Each structure stands twice: as structure tokens, then as C-alpha cells.
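Our collaborator T.R. sent over the components below with a one-line note: 'Predict the complex.' Nothing else. No constraints on interfaces, no templates requested, no preferences about which chain binds where. So this is a plain run: every listed entity goes in together, and whatever single assembly comes back becomes the starting point for the next discussion.
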Amino acid sequence: MPPQNMDRAVLIAARTVLLRDARATMAAIAEEAGMGVAGLYRRYANKQTLLQAVAADNYRRYVAFAEAALSDTDDPWHAFTDFLRHVLDEGLPRLTVALRGEVTFDQRLSDLDKLAVNTTNRLLRAARGSGALRPEVTRADITVLLEQLGRIDVGDDVRSAALRRRYLTLVCDGLRADSATRRLPGPPPHEAELLGRWA
Amino acid sequence: MPPQNMDRAVLIAARTVLLRDARATMAAIAEEAGMGVAGLYRRYANKQTLLQAVAADNYRRYVAFAEAALSDTDDPWHAFTDFLRHVLDEGLPRLTVALRGEVTFDQRLSDLDKLAVNTTNRLLRAARGSGALRPEVTRADITVLLEQLGRIDVGDDVRSAALRRRYLTLVCDGLRADSATRRLPGPPPHEAELLGRWA
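Returned assembly:
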């Protein structure tokens, strides 16, 4: 396997194991990747370095889905809901929740976080501009809703994914400007409330 | 304090403490209730008996809100959404989640669970019959949605409650038949999937 493919395989193995247990050992991750623990430590000097690589990869996947949605200018609402579905199907919010409290934010992760926020805001502006999205919905709302949907877990991966799609459909219908019977009450989460959960 | 008021005070103290930490000790609960541990053990022979009493009380509160909503036959949709708001404001789904895995289901709790299911089904039939509720929404959907909303927690009780109301408003708009852009995909959770989470 070429080195970059091996890196990818390690990240995928780490995602899989960390989604089951965010406190998994390097040994468990090495086993899932089909390599020795020593080999894993040659790539990542310690578990924190690996966790940061996994978190960075999670951000990059998120931004890639958001960028793809932004390129669909014909139907911003469809692009937006498709983006939410991809992000959920890939388990990105679940991994974010799992890594909370485990991963230490370094400069690279802070930069990726800013990029993810900016790209989501661009996507929301497009959906809002098309008139389809409730105007008061913010990026912080989307963060909370994705995390809540990501937490749905009935013990079986296939069924859990199907249920996440069921409730995403309901939430997306609730996000539409046409559906609003009233303005959403209270302010959305403040940035500090969202960031506080990383502490 | 008359004995029944003291019982109520103990249950309220237990709710408060268990919502913070479902594995709280009898000592922590006694302290919150402003009584000695020995006094608490005179009322509840062991922690499991107290947990079962708290769970039973939680079911009874839920059913009382549902019955109140059923008595409003003028506007079944308004009664239904008000019911959801009361249940969330009172923290009933949060306590259910907190007690999961901690409380052992005895016959009394099984009977109360059946009563809660039946009452919710009657409420859903009324909301469906009025044409306001998406016809495919089941009691299991409501269980999942209430638990998801109940889990919203930004570390501050007042802000968390305000955010739960914000997203409940969005979810209620999504639950309306008028809002449906398509049928909700996939089946709702099976009973075994919901019950399995109590194991």
C-alpha cells in the first residue's frame, strides 16, 4: 500500500474505533487498521497527535461537503439539505461529539474550525437568499441540530442511520420558511456556549 | 411537614440530584432533601427502591400532562404542542434518559409505561384526526424526538431550557402535515429498539 493510502487506512480505522469508544487505546486502533502498535506509533508519536489528525480529517470532510453544496447554485435549498444528509450519513457530527473533551485544539484545528464556520455561513446565506430557509436560523442552530441528529443510536448502525434520515427529513421541513407558524423563540446558542462544550 | 409533603420533597430532591448525576449516592440525595441518610433509608430501603419511585413519579407527571392535553378538544394541535413543551420544560425526558440502565423495571413501572404509551397514542390520534399532524408520525417518533430535545445542554439550566424551546418550535413546525414536502423515510423505531435502550 502506498504511504498516503496507508495514512488514509489508519484514519478510517481510527474513526471507526473512536466512534465506538472515544477512549479507545492505540492498540485497539492499530488492530482495526491491521498493523502493529509500533507501526502506529511511528506514524503518530502519541494518541493526542492521532486524535488531532482524526479531528482535522473530520473538518476537511465537512468542508468538502459544504463546498460541493455551494457549487450547486441552481437549487440552494436542495443543495443545503443534501449537505446535511451527507454529513450525517458519514457520521461527522457523531465523531465531533465523541472527540469532545478528548482532543486538544491546536492552531491547525482552530483554523479548520473557522473554515468550517465560514463555509457553513456561506451555505446558509445561499439557502436564505433563495427564500427557502427560515431567516432566523444561524450556523449555531445547524451545529446543534446536526449533533442532536447524530446522537440518535438504537444499537444497530443501519437502523440508526435510517432513523437519523427520518428525523433529518422532519427537521428540514421544520427549517423551511414556508413551514414557520411563528418565529423561533429565544436566541440561538452563543459562540461561547458551543465552544464551551469542547472544554 | 406532613408525611406526604415530605415524600414529595424527597422525590423532588432525588429528581434534582439524579438529573445532575444518575449515579448519585443516597447521601447526596438526603443532603439535597435536607434530611439525614438514615431518615432517607427509613423511607426507601435501598437506592433501587428510590429510583423506582422517582421513575414512577416521572411517568405519572407525563401521563398527567397528556390527560390535560386530551381534555382540550377544541384545538388538538395546540394541546399536543403544549403537552410537548410542558414535558420538556419539566425535564421528564431528561430524567428518563438519566435513569436508563440505572432503574430496574418492576410490574408497577411496566404498567405505568403501558399507560404512558396508551395516553400518548390517544393524544396522537386526536392531533392526527384534526388533520394537523403528519399522518405517519407514531408514538415511538415522539419518544425519540423528546429525548433528543431533552438532551440539549449548554451547561446553563436557563439557557438550555430556552434552547430546547427553540428547537421544539422547529420540530413542531416539522411535525405539521402542512409542512411535509415528502413522507418521512424509513419506519419509525420498533418497540424493541426503544425498549432495548432500557437494558
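Summary for T.R.: The mean pLDDT of chain B is 93.
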